[in-house]
Amino acid sequence: MMIFYLRMVFIFLLSCPLFAGQDSIVLLAEKNSPALNNLYKNLKSLKPDFNYVISTKKTPAIIKADDLVILVGAKVPDYVDLNSHKKSMAVLVTEQQGKQLQDQVQTSIWLEPPLSRQLTLANLVIPGDKKIGFLVNGEENKRQQLSRLSSTQKAMLKVVDLNDYENINQALFHVLKDTRLLLGGYERDIYNAKTIKNILITSYRQQKVLIGPSRAYLKAGSFATTFSDLNQVALRIVDVIDHYHSSANWLKPDYNPYYRIVFNQQVARSLNIQMMDGDLLEQRMREQ
After folding, report:
1. Left if phi > 0, otherwise alpha if psi is -120 to 50, otherwise beta: which for 178?
2. Using one digit for the tens of pLDDT, what is the confidence trace for 162-188?
3. Beta strand residue intervals within 200-250, DSSP E
4. Residue 17: is the preceding peptide bond cis (ω within 30°)?
5. Cα(235)–Cα(238) distance, integer angstroms
6. Phi and psi of 188, rounded to 5°?
7. What digits encode the pLDDT tens for the residues 129-162?
8. C-alpha closest to that of 243 among 89, 117, 40, 112
9. What is the Cα–Cα distance from 222 to 264, expressed in whole angstroms?
10. How large is the angle between the packed helices 34-46 and 230-247, nearest 10 degrees?
């Protein structure tokens, strides 16, 4: 009788989520990369009780129907049909890429920082009464860029449309006139390898800095930005998984709430900008 009772208890415990077999997580990518491997290491450190496997085109893994598939990057390898997997998400993708993948994955964590966060950073590091310059590329781009800002935030910006001028130099002249800095949105048609040098030189000639649009532009000469490192991406992945386990629902696609603030110290020295203490700045950012 005792053996029968213990066996029933054991079967019951196995049926509970806490004691059920651990999730198998597949990190799916077109090809191997340092970012893919670092994300794998961070996830294993945060959630060591999960089973992890990396699957790429060169070294494909067997993906079972119940595996949780994490697409790393925007390209889905052609040997995988994500539509057959009902537990999947995309990471290291932009908002636009995430929306393009929305029919194939249940949710996504967007790569770029939200404009509202960048605007908050700009107001804290370069305070003042003047507006903040902001470039857009057409009415549709303007609508998309400003859609997540409040009316109060929009009123802080002097928005200049590239399409209203013959070239980017004319647009830069007008966007920098009577503003205290230039806020760069995550817009590749405006901020790219061909334009960034001209934008930065023109801005600094007027003693004005560029905030954003991403960490990649810091080396080129932008002043500050926020970004999510791979450990913070892993933290958000864990949030998404835990939420799904507890509610059977996916968190909506969105920006990563975990981030760091980084500065170009050389730009600060060149323009005599007084730097706020990093911890205090991060606290102020969270409060706002």
Report:
1. left
2. 999 999 999 999 999 999 999 999 999
3. 210-211, 224-227
4. no
5. 5
6. -70, -25
7. 999 999 999 999 999 999 999 999 999 999 999 9
8. 89
9. 7
10. 50
